[in-house]
Write a structure and sequence with these properties.
25 strands, alpha+beta, 9 helices, single chain
């Protein structure tokens, strides 16, 4: 779509040339001239890559009366319904180096993965137990009273569990409780490196994901939709593991997982209400990407059930990132891509064709006094910390230079985006 230009600008070429920041034409080929010192206002829609379900859109749809099944069927058209059960393994990135350290608790048991031996740990006054790499490369179990004491060496990977009760992991930022088992896994035989991994049921894992990805206080149907999307995403990633000792991670690179301490009663109920339910494609769990806000159009993903389509639910009044803007100095772009020298022109060379301004930027060229650089819309977004690639520009001169920092316009992430 091409936005209409004012009649005055159409009739007066001289006036059009005098107005800084009005593009030559909308869509592919948009060009903005940039004076020597300029303010650049970047206006955008949405937050995230735009593939799959918009979380703000799910809430907007729920407010319009849609149930969770209709919500996910809208955002993942062409998928079928199925079930997923079993366990998942999750890398815990906040653990302390190569050491697995937990608080002592009744019922705590240690297992040696090489032998299968399970040993209930004694109530010996210990406040903490840990598995750390011994000088000989084995996993060594120790406990702490007033100091650390050696307890046993394991032949393989070691894991703590407590009969189904949560275990508190000690991290540099404090303690965090997790359901299931906590394992000191060995990614490479003979290596001192350890992966700290949480092994637990899929349903328990989803309970630690959903309130990290969407507010548990939102509409019940939106939270249920998130539970289905998150469970399906986990089931898909389980078939495409991220590492040799784990399938998923606990960060935005997978989906955010906070363990037992992140759970809320309302989101736990949403997980229970949709128990085992997933979306499938060709009989396998679907790749159900999701993000904060589509801005009014989803963007095409890597599979047929992630199409670009107009999203009528994203623009409800409570969505602060449906439309947004930030203001930066041209210096910021010049420092980010110093090879261009003094920025003189911004040229959008390709958009995806969907929505305002011709849609999301696919590629953009920055022209300067020393050269030019062409980057993808994703790179432009990432380097400048923008909410999305669906943006347009307005340029105005500034009379005094002031150093610009990213903190002047950076924004906090409102919800996860599966990039």
């Amino acid at each position: 779509m091409r936005p209409a230009r004012s009649l005055a600008l159409v009739l007066s070429g001289a006036l059009a040339a005098a107005v800084i920041g009005v593009p030559a034409h909308a869509g592919t080929g948009d060009t903005w001239k940039v004076p020597a010192q300029a303010w650049i206002t970047i206006k955008g829609h949405g937050y995230g890559h735009g593939h799959g379900m918009s979380q703000y859109g799910a809430e907007g749809a729920a407010r319009q009366g849609l149930g969770y099944a209709k919500i996910v069927e809208f955002y993942y058209p062409g998928t079928d319904w199925g079930q997923a059960t079993g366990r998942v393994t999750v890398l815990l990135t906040g653990a302390t180096g190569n050491t697995l350290e937990v608080l002592a608790r009744p019922g705590l048991t240690i297992k040696d993965a090489a032998t299968g031996d399970r040993t209930p740990l004694p109530a010996n006054g210990a406040s903490r137990w840990r598995i750390a790499t011994a000088p000989n490369g084995d996993n060594r179990v120790s406990y702490k009273t007033t100091r650390w004491h050696g307890y046993a060496d394991l032949q393989g990977a070691g894991e703590f569990y407590a009969g189904g009760d949560p275990i508190s992991l000690v991290t540099p930022d404090g303690t965090r409780a997790y359901r299931g088992r906590l394992r000191a896994a060995i990614p490479t035989p003979g290596s001192p490196e350890r992966d700290i991994v949480n092994d637990l049921t899929l349903e328990s894992y989803i309970k630690g994901v959903v309130p990290q990805e969407i507010p548990a206080s939102w509409s019940t149907e939106a939270v249920r939709a998130q539970a289905v999307a998150a469970r399906t995403y986990a089931a898909y990633e389980r078939e495409h593991p991220h590492g040799s000792t784990y399938q998923l991670c606990d960060t935005y690179a997978c989906q955010v997982y906070g363990g037992y301490d992140a759970e809320y009663p309302a989101s736990n109920k949403a997980v229970d209400d949709t128990r085992d339910k997933v979306l499938t494609a060709d009989g396998e769990p679907a790749f159900t990407q999701f993000g904060s806000s589509s801005g009014g159009w989803t963007s095409a993903g890597s599979v047929s059930y992630l199409p670009a389509r107009q999203d009528p639910y994203d623009g409800w009044s409570g969505n602060p990132v449906h439309t947004w803007s930030v203001k930066v100095q041209d210096d910021l772009i010049e420092r980010t891509w110093p090879a261009i020298g003094n920025l003189t022109k911004i040229v959008v060379t390709r958009r995806d064709g969907n929505g305002d301004w011709g849609g999301r930027i696919v590629s953009i060229t920055l022209v300067g006094s020393s050269g030019r650089v062409t980057v993808s819309g994703d790179t432009f977004r990432a380097e400048l910390g923008l909410r999305s690639t669906w943006v347009t520009f307005r340029v105005a001169p500034r009379t005094a230079a002031r150093p610009e920092s990213r903190a002047d316009y950076a924004v906090d992430r409102l919800a996860a985006s599966r990039d």
